[in-house]
Design a protein that fits this description.
mainly alpha, Serine Threonine Protein Phosphatase 5, Tetratricopeptide repeat, 0% strand
């Protein structure tokens, strides 16, 4: 892979991902070599970036809880994509959002790094609407695997600001994510109800806290 024509790299990364999905946890002995390859070819503007993230996802699935040991190296460079991705469809950024969900409980202790960049993504007005919607949905999906109790305020206040925006698709995604947070937080969500109702007329007659019960 280090000496092959650049046009073959994506194919080899795809095959490596397939190999990891087959041998699963037995890939452990080769991880240092694989991550060295990832580091060598990691480039947010590269056409193979999505394939490399696919490989990382397969490693996360194969290792399960053991994957957490590798996040201190992988997570920072993955989160850099949020600022560095300038592609038209922002496909690498969308792929990182998907990967965050795949990582599951492994990223729970890194929420202080993850939440700010995801929240920034769905609040920025110059970000494509579909990408902002995906970022909101990512929070909802992660809430099914990760405990957000210590970070609720840093998530719900930005979602409240989204509800005040004129984009219906984005507002619906924010409502779905808020409902997911209700189920996780339970009675701890109650302190946010007045704020949510205040910014959204729909919620003035539909108390989201009732969903929990």
């Amino acid at each position: 892979m280090r000496t092959c024509p650049s046009g073959m790299l994506e194919f080899y990364f795809q095959q490596l991902g397939i190999l990891v999905s087959i041998v699963k946890q037995h890939i452990r002995n080769y991880l240092s070599d694989i991550f060295a390859l990832v580091d060598s070819f990691w480039n947010p503007s590269s056409t193979i970036q999505i394939t490399i993230i696919d490989l990382v996802e397969q490693i996360a699935i194969a290792l399960d809880g053991e994957f957490k040991n590798h996040l201190p190296v992988l997570l920072p460079i993955m989160l850099q994509i949020f600022d560095q991705d300038r592609s038209e469809k922002r496909s690498p950024t969308l792929k990182v959002l998907q990967a965050l969900v795949v990582f599951g409980t492994n990223i729970e202790e890194y929420m202080h790094l993850v939440i700010p960049v995801v929240v920034k993504l769905f609040e920025k007005p110059d970000v494509p609407l579909q990408l902002r919607k995906s970022a909101v949905q990512t929070i909802g999906q992660m809430s099914k695997k990760v405990n957000f109790s210590d970070h609720a305020s840093r998530i719900i206040h930005p979602l409240a600001r989204v509800l005040a925006m004129p984009y219906m698709d984005l507002k619906i995604a924010a409502m779905d994510t808020l409902c997911a947070l209700v189920f996780q937080l339970g009675s701890d969500y109650a302190i946010f109800i007045p704020m949510i109702n205040k910014v959204n007329k729909f919620l003035a007659t539909f108390n989201t806290f009732d969903i929990f019960y």
